[in-house]
Amino acid sequence: MTIRRLTSKDLSAYRAIWADGLMKVPTAFLFGAEEVRAIPNKDVEKMLEVNLTLGAFDDARRLVGFVSARRGGPQRMQHMADIGPLYVRSEAQGQGFGRALMDALLQQLATAGIQQVELCVDVENTGAQKLYHALGFHVFGRRPRSVLIDGDGRDDFLMIKALDGTDLTRGA
Predict the structure, then answer these.
(1) Hey, which bits of the chain come out as E strands?
(2) Which of 65, 72, 105, 139 could share a disulfide with 56, CB 3.0–4.6 Å?
(3) Is the pTM of this model over 0.85?
(4) How many other CB atoms sit within 10 Å of the CB of residue 143?
């Protein structure tokens, strides 16, 4: 297994795995398949440059998973980052790729001075929730109808983790 940052050289593989994820687990993504197909390559390359997107490669050097994080935009939010999506191809699940991606991402974010990370996870995605809990995330809210997929509202849990040792559960 190899974990590394994705670059514009990975564009085709990244778009392919993103499309795979949208087909197989549409509830794991903010964008719909039509929206993703409409994003020009130059914009996806810019996303790879600006956001921290890590890829997991199997022994055959095939991209089998990815995770992204975006640092807060305004100065007052530069201490935090939003994580997502995290996706691992179904045939590679259960082999530690998701955990390795998240471990590497959290380490790089902490090294970059990020103090806390947040993510959203579909309330029915118990596998991802189990991973996030094991990594030290905790639920701090529920967003009803976070997304609409084919007209149906999907709820998300909002999860948070401190990277600097601060207890974020106070008052929770």
Answers:
(1) 2-5, 52-57, 63-71, 80-88, 116-122, 138-149, 152-162
(2) 65
(3) yes
(4) 13
